[in-house]
């Protein structure tokens, strides 16, 4: 393997950032891709996305409602949950710059990535895309294992190890997922950003990255760091490793590319809407993490009490 790839050049970092975008896709859009329920289909005026209105999107599981919930950006939502307050707190100190980058990203998605995604979806059947997605989920398991281990979630780390061994062998290098279907070992993904959150590292300022999309300081650090130690770097030479991850990321992005345009067109202020969606998803993860910690602490306290008795 080429030894020179250990010394990163600026060009390699750019390739890693681009591949990270494709890997994570438009992280703020709903996962379920689908078609827009148009005004004519609803036989009602077009619903626009504001803080008080919702839009409907038809999915394979029925019609879902999408509402741009206003939430905090600085993890204060965890504290406000206990006081039942809905105060909106934003930490977007470079909003003018973020808006400019958001506009650049929109035209990149609209005129480049989304047309490519449409062609990709027509050419490649769904089973093939699922297998590609399975393979890239599997190759990421070592990162999940490390993050869960450093987060103290040993059970989840064990699940990551079991899934990687089973899917890499029985699942034909991860193309299939027998770990879930046959052995009921559920997926336990975790990013470096989520690991840092367990150590009470704040999210920092809200950011919009070129091509990469919505992020914050903590998750930007997570994306770059994981890109530098991703398992593909130990399989392929640079820049092939970044290109391979780009294929996996584009495969993940393609099914939900149309949803982005649907939501963008119906938002009164697309920048605020996608910012709110990103913040909402991050805080939902934070609340879930807090609940898991609250469940673990009483169990630990009961164990210590029983030892004292």
Q: What does this molecule look like?
A:
With 309 residues, the chain is mainly alpha-helical. 59% of the residues lie in helices and 6% in strands. The protein has one domain (3-140, 189-308). Helix 6 (141-150) runs antiparallel to helix 7 (154-169).
SSE blueprint and pairings:
Layout: H1 10-24, E1 35-36, H2 39-42, E2 55-59, E3 62-66, H3 77-83, H4 95-123, H5 126-139, H6 141-150, H7 154-169, H8 178-181, H9 192-198, E4 206-209, E5 213-216, H10 217-229, H11 240-253, H12 257-266, H13 270-308
Antiparallel strand pairs: 1-2, 2-3, 4-5
Helix pairs in contact: 1-10, 1-11, 5-11, 6-7, 9-10
Radius of gyration: 21 Å
Low-confidence blocks of residues: 1-52, 58-62, 68-73, 76-88
Structural class by sheet pairing and helices:
mainly alpha
Average predicted confidence as pLDDT: 77
Order of strands, widest sheet: 1-2-3
Fraction in beta strands:
5-15%
Give the distance, in angstroms, between the N- and C-terminal Cα atoms: 59 Å
Tally of individual helices = 13
How much helicity do the residues have?
A: 55-70%
Count the beta strands: 5
Shape estimate: globular
Task: Please summarize the sheet with the most strands.
Answer: 3 strands, antiparallel
Number of domains: 1
Order of H and E elements? HEHEEHHHHHHHEEHHHH
């Amino acid at each position: 393997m080429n030894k020179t790839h250990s010394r990163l050049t600026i060009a390699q970092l750019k390739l890693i950032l681009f591949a990270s975008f494709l890997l994570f896709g438009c992280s703020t859009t709903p996962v379920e891709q689908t078609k827009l329920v148009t005004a004519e289909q609803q036989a009602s005026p077009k619903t626009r996305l504001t803080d008080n209105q919702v839009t409907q999107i038809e999915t394979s599981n029925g019609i879902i409602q999408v509402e741009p919930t206003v939430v905090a950006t600085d993890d204060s939502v965890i504290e406000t949950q206990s006081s039942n307050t809905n105060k909106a707190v934003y930490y977007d100190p470079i909003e003018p710059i973020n808006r400019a980058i958001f506009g650049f990203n929109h035209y990149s998605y609209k005129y480049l990535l989304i047309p490519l995604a449409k062609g990709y979806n027509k050419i490649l059947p769904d089973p093939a895309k699922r297998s590609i997605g399975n393979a890239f989920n599997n190759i990421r398991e070592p990162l999940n294992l490390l993050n869960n281990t450093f987060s103290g979630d040993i059970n989840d780390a064990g699940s990551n190890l079991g899934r990687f061994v089973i899917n890499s062998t029985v699942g034909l290098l991860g193309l299939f997922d027998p770990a879930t279907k046959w052995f009921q070992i559920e997926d336990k993904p975790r990013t470096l950003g989520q690991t840092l959150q367990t150590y009470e590292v704040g999210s920092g300022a809200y950011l919009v990255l070129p091509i990469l999309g919505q992020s914050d300081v903590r998750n930007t650090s997570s994306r770059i760091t994981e890109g530098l130690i991703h398992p593909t770097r130990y399989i392929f030479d640079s820049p092939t490793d970044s290109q391979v991850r780009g294929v996996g990321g584009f495969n993940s992005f393609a099914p939900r590319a149309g949803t982005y345009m649907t939501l963008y067109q119906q938002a009164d202020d697309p920048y605020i809407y996608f910012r709110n969606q990103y913040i909402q998803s991050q805080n939902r993860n934070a609340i879930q993490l807090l609940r898991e910690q609250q469940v673990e602490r009483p169990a630990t306290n009961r164990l210590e009490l029983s030892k004292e008795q």
